[in-house]
Amino acid sequence: MLSRLWLILLCSTASCLSWGKDRERQSVLLRDLSTTALLTTENTFSDAQGNYQLIFTEYRNRTCRPEHFQKLRKLGSGARGQVWRARHDSGMFVALKVMHDKGPIAYKRIRAEEVFLARLDHVSIPKLYCSFQENGQTVLAMTLAEARDLFDWIYEQRLLPRLTRRVMVQLVNVLGYLHANNVMHRDVKPENMMVTEAGHLYLVDYDHAFMTEAMLSTPCGTLMNMAPELLRREPYNNGIDWYAAGLVLYEMVMGVHPYDRIRDRDGMLERAARGCPRTGDRLVDDLVGKLSHVQMRLRWSVANGNWKDIITHPYFLDGERTRHLRINKVRERRAQTVELENLQSHRTEFDTQASTRAKDAALSANIPSNGTEGSLAMKARMVRLQLSELKKTKAEILRERTTVDLLSKTETFKTSGIYQPIYTHWNGRICHKGRFSNWRQIGNGATGTVYYALAEDNVTVAIKLVENDELQAIRAEDVLLSRLNHPGIINLHCVFPYHDNVALVMPFIKGVNLLAKLSQGIDSGLRKSIMRQLVDVLRYLHSQEVWHRDIKLENLMLSEDNKLYLIDFGLATINGLDSSFVGTETYMAPEVWKSNTHSAASDWYAVGILFYELLMGSPPFQWVENAFDPSRELKKACTKGIIPLTGHNDEDELIQGLTLLDVEQRWGDATLETIRDHRAIN
């Protein structure tokens, strides 16, 4: 029996080795096929095991393996995968694109990306070094572009005319190169264009690209940048790329997409039929009109057949001269038009009393609106006053509600499909992205990204961008951070919509979170100071019947002068309002694991775990991270209520009291003086 088992094992090992060699032989054979064959022969997309069949697996005559790369930092993530900054064992820095999608459709996209990045050769196209499999996922190692996507350039800082022209010249060149090789990109948009600080462009994401000389009919791409023939499901050629390039130019110049208020195909068709809106700059309008012509046969470079003629357009040859002055005026006029459209759309949202108050405010301003010179600016002031009054009234109506109402009445969360802010004003003025400049990313979390920015008078602020669908978390921070008042809680300045996100503006605190501080070392005096401040913040929160529900090192900020701040109230709730299973597993109390029951005692349990971590450098149950099912093992460990001793008598007494299994006996609000005066933190 034993010999038979060994025979089975040997056979299995041999078959695995044989399968691995077969995969490598298959990759070598596929490299000899033409690009068209690789993109269209679907039986080459996967191997016998159902995994994606790699092609370009070697770099410098060596097959790439996961162990050849050290992941350093995550650069971004999306629905289909992640991008990492990594270092090859040769010392070269690369970008690793990890794609976790599986199936025929996903493999077709991966094949397009792998083949085009490997075989196309242009300075504005990232180069593929190799591909490999890691934990069943396909990984592409490619050129690392120290850059940001053009979308961020457009919406976070104004693009100077010189940089706009430079980016546009490179876009025309790379599209010309692609089309000369019969390749259509089919998803040209700012999010797929990476721009370095020096202004160098990389056109990325080739999963929709295709190589053919014939017309195609399969619709693909991003709705807002689709050419009319794509929207009508008609056959198309590479003219769709030039159409999208024209829209990108408009967006760079104006700071807004020409059709950014339209979200459906019929609306896009109707608006596109009228042509791209005017920018007020004759040369820009002429170039955009030629690139984004409604009729495909009249569109550059389909009409003239030579993309190089585009580079000779006067727009690229014209100096800056007074262009920036004209564009600034056009931006102002565009902003006035948007405000007027917003006013019309918001009027239906409010009751008769609010509309009457807005009209009275406009009349009391005594602003003339006749045809005299300068009346456009006067009308714009009146529109701004009316729109501000309407929005303020909506926010005022909500602010009159109780905290419980605002956190529980989900019907108040949205207006016109986007989050409805409560606290919209700061220093007497409504907040919007134009009030902030010099945006710089400083942090990234599960629900959003944090930026450093400058407000008026060079006041530094932190702006947290949260996705618009995280409504409960946004509302919690909007309301609680505005209504709570404690020196250990960072108050909210204001909230405003920002594209598909919601921006929460608050004071900028220069410092680090406790997880980072712990890695630098925390002495006994600082540890005691941290605990005393945390106890005081928690005392205040619970006196307001607010449970934080996610106390951990990452959610505690320590300023340069060692002042402690409790942050991230996205999971916070009012006593008894919500019983969801939320929080960070390592800090969850036993009653949360057993019955999803959060209370003030659950926060105190997390404080006990955190104190242990400050003492020992790691949480008491970290060892279960290597278990087959970490969540289940962690639950078993913490529900036993056995916290290992640290060897410090006073500290162990406090930790054991804060982490008792019995919620009624656990130290907390009822024994606040005992905690506050305990020898372990004094």
UniProtKB/TrEMBL annotation:
Residues 69-316, 436-681 form the Protein kinase domain. ATP binds at residue 464. PROSITE patterns: PROKAR_LIPOPROTEIN, PROTEIN_KINASE_ATP, PROTEIN_KINASE_DOM, PROTEIN_KINASE_ST. Keywords: ATP-binding, Kinase, Nucleotide-binding, Phosphoprotein, Serine/threonine-protein kinase, Signal, Transferase. InterPro entries: Kinase-like_dom_sf, Prot_kinase_dom, Protein_kinase_ATP_BS, Ser/Thr_kinase_AS. The keyword Phosphoprotein applies. One of its GO terms (molecular function) is ATP binding. It holds the Pfam family Pkinase. This is Protein kinase domain-containing protein.
